[in-house]
Amino acid sequence: MDLTEIELDLEGMPPIKEGRELVLLVAVNIPGYYSLPVRLLALLANTTAPINQRYDVRFVEHESERNWYDLFDYIKRIDPVILAFSMNIWNRDICIDLATRIKVEKPEITVLIGGQEATDSVIDYLAMVPAFDYIIDGEGELPFLEFLGNWDPVNKKLSDPGKVSGLWYRDQGQAVKTGHANTVQSLDEIPSPILAGLVPMHSKRNLGVMLEGSRCCPFRCSFCFEGGHRGAVRSASVDRITREIDYAVEQGARYFHIMDPILCSHDSQRLKLLTDHIRNLSAKRKKITFLVEAYAEFITDEIAICMKDIAIIDIGLQTIHPPTAKSINRKYRPKAFQRGLNALRRHGAIYNLYLICGLPYETLCTYLKGILFVIEQQPVRVFFNELCLLNGTDLRRKADTYGYHYDAAPPYLIHSNNWMTTEELRMAWALSAAISAQYNLSVFGMYKDTPWLTRQSHYFEKKQHVIGLVGECRRICPACVTREPVPINEFDHLLEDAENADFEIVIDNAVNKNYLLQLIGRVHLAGAVRIKLSTPPALFEDNEFIDLLVSRGVWQFKTFLGLPGNEIIDLKMARDEAGKLQSVLRSFSLPGAAHFSPFVEVVVYPGMIDPGGLRDLLFMLKEMRAPMISLPADYVIPEDRTEFDNFSTMFFEMIENRMWLKLPEEFYHVWFKDDKDAKAIICMLKTLQLLSGDSRPPCADSVAYNTNR
Question: Is there a single domain that holds both residue 623 and residue 562?
Answer without folding.
Answer: yes
